[in-house]
Design brief:
The structure is a homodimer. Chain A is α/β, with parallel strands linked by helices. Chain A is globular. The structure holds a DNA duplex.
DNA sequence: TTTGCTTTTGATGATTCCATCAAAAGCGGC
DNA sequence: GCCGCTTTTGATGGAATCATCAAAAGCAAA
């Protein structure tokens, strides 16, 4: 999963990025509204953390522009505790959730996880697909009860697929969401890791759609 | 192109089908409203000719049902000369054009051609794509001025692609619109004819999108 | 630095998809 | 029926895509 952090306070920005990266997210950062707007416009993110008070262009304006252009990426707003009107403005502009400063980073983490999950249409923190269960909170995967030992990239790949159950996910989409810009786009890591996942989970969980990508789908759940 | 004729008068039905087939259309026929509705629902047509007075289910109802289900196929209504109210009802129900009985078959032909063209978003009877021009009225194709000699299937294949400039057209879509139901779906005729067209028109007019199908696109015309 | 684990690279082979060709089949006119 | 043209079939080879493996590179903890 790939996340954009737009926050002008350098310490706070860095702190957020570090924690998110530790959790396995790919993170881009911006320090003013214009830069943030540009990145959000051009790169595909799974969630965006957006401060309200920003130089050059304020957070509300950035968000409004995105929403007017039809961007649906979930946005978590950062507001000051006492500026109650900011929250209202944020929600009106299309924010999906907000956190008041100062906050515990864990709270931001939890909310980001939740935003990404909900954007993919999953209510609980556990995503279930047949015998397969992935818990986004604990980052644990079980298959008919027994827990799998997955490496970081294996988990993140499976995590992305599980967030898009029933959809065909292209290799480029995977690369874009699991790596940052300057990753070699015609490497075959994705194939390799799909192979490893199949070896650990059984061959018939991830199907490959030739020329299109990979798909994981619920055996019981009928349509898309 | 594939057309459905729904008309209970057997002579008239047959007459229409014969002329349309002579023009290279693939034609299915139905003699009552229910049969017509079913076919229109299950097979992909480029245009439908629908009589208003039909047994079992009248034409207006058939059309209303299709439109309610979101079907957009252009429909040409056949009405009696003096039943003026029928025409209004037809237009209201979502008919795209109508012809009053008795009519000259040529008029029906012209209107069907026009309906199919307009449904694909082309105003004039001539479809132009770079140096390539296809005249739907005279069934003639020129490339930078010089006329091509095309066989019937070659023309119909190119015709279908030209009606969908900029879109990727799958092999199955082509088979469905150039042949009737019981054509062997995994034959390679489409490939063969694409090959022949390329030989006559130059290799770079029809591009192949691997795993998806073929596309013909305007070199100047920017987007879709 | 060494060790152990994860990730990436590059090579290889299998499979699927597409292009092409020549021969067979179909069809209409004479 | 015979002939010319169009369409279809089947076989073949080439090209793109995907799977798999082993070795190299990267990285972090001891």
């Amino acid at each position: 999963m790939r996340i954009l952090v737009v926050e002008d306070d350098k310490d706070l920005n860095r702190q957020l990025c570090d924690v998110l990266q530790d959790q396995g997210y790919v993170v881009d950062k911006a320090f003013d509204g214009e830069e943030g707007h540009f990145l959000g416009d051009t790169e595909p993110y799974d969630a965006i953390i957006l401060d309200i008070g920003l130089p050059v262009m304020d957070g509300i304006s950035v968000l409004e522009r995105w929403r007017k252009d039809g961007k649906k990426t979930p946005v978590l707003m950062l507001t000051a505790r006492d500026r109650w009107s900011d929250k209202v403005a944020g929600i009106d502009a299309g924010a999906d959730d907000y956190v008041t400063k100062p906050f515990h980073v864990e709270e931001v983490l939890a909310r980001v996880r939740s935003l990404i999950r909900r954007a993919a249409g999953h209510a609980s923190s556990e995503i279930i697909c047949g015998d397969l269960r992935l818990d986004t909170k604990s980052s644990k995967v079980t298959i008919s009860g027994t827990q799998l030992k997955l490496t970081s990239l294996e988990f993140r790949l499976l995590d992305y697929l599980m967030h898009h159950i029933g959809e065909v996910v292209s290799r480029t989409e995977l690369v874009e969401h699991l790596y940052d810009q300057d990753f070699d786009r015609d490497s075959n890591t994705i194939e390799v890791f799909v192979g490893r996942l199949r070896k650990k989970m059984g061959n018939d969980m991830i199907e490959t759609i030739r020329g299109m990508g990979y798909r994981i789908s619920d055996p019981n759940g009928g349509a898309a």
